[in-house]
Amino acid sequence: MNRFIKLVSVISTLALAQAALAEEPQEPPKLSLKGEFGKGFGVESVDGSFGMNLRARAQVRATVVGHEEEDKDPSADFQIRRMRVSLDAHGWKKLVTLRVQLAFATSDLDPVAPTPLRDAFVTFAPTRDFHFRAGQMKVPYGRQRVVSSGSLQMVDRSLVTAELNLDRDVGAVMFSDDAGGFGGLFGYSVGVFGGDGRNRTSGGDGLLYAARLALRPVGGELGDDLDEPDFVRSKPRLQFGVSGAFNHKTDRVRSTIGERFETGPWANYVHAGADTSFKYRGLSITGEAFLRRALEDRHSVLEEGETVTDVARSGYGGFFQAGKFLGEHLELSTRVGVLRRLGDAESGFRSEQELGGGVSYYVKKHALKVQADTFYIWEQWGEGRVQGRLQLQVAP
Hints:
The chain has helices at residues 2-23, 159-164, and strands spanning 31-36, 40-45, 51-67, 75-91, 96-103, 117-124, 131-137, 169-176, 186-193, 208-218, 237-250, 252-254, 257-260, 267-280, 283-294, 298-303, 306-311, 314-326, 330-342, 352-364, 368-379, 384-394. The chain is mainly β. It is globular. 33% of the residues are buried. Mean pLDDT is 91; it is low at 10-17.
């Protein structure tokens, strides 16, 4: 009996000791502050298991346009083209990441759904060959549209990209930048989206399906696809990409962007694209081609005894762009682009060409730069206009 009492006493003492240890307050995680011009300001745990970073970017632009048509006066304006704030966070050694980006410039808002939310997605990266992303993001289609507007070598994207790209949408994507582990040789993205554009629903039953494949046979460097200038200036890097998408029953004139059809969601758009880029010792060359074709050109409904008709906006186009660094900070660039309409002439699609050049001075790469470009833009069978732009970008 005494032995039993002693055994119970020992067990009770050990249990109380364990409980006391469990109740002791744990040491809070050690954090380190990070801050550098061009990389933002953030906080991260010492072991790197979690953290977050805050950045801002502003583009101040002046634009002057002169028209060949005598009845059109020249114009000049100043604007905050883009003003954005982004938050990036990660946890579990970057197994899970979060990105939120807000836009505050009027020209950055979708007129159909004018919300400041541009990016809001979570990425889960359990393996090298499989990453999963869900939320609002850029649709994996084309190259220049996926490149950030803050990482361009000219003031803005080509008019071909502006017309034929697929904008941000809400959905889910599976992707990898290094499928198979061949040093970035292969990359893929496959996604399903609502097909209605940024953070909105049309009430239709159609979805957007998109995919992109990338091949980097020479010098495939992860992340290099997302920067137009050649800051690396070392070994040659060559990249090819193909994209495809199908938007089922959209109510937007340009698939995921543009005005809404009066007759509701009905247009079925097929999208196809191909692109290539080459970089070597400060030289960068980019070429891209797009196609957007509606399966039906027109759609009519009877409303209050009157027939209302919408016309799909189909077309194709391509551009070629090149840039070369002269010294450490100065880059010269040039671009030529062509847009052509397909289908109905009443669609509003303008067959145009662009030809121009630009100069960029990178004080601290994209974090602080001044860019200027001049373009002559003219219609296929009509008169043209001369456009000059000057832009300052600050992205601390």
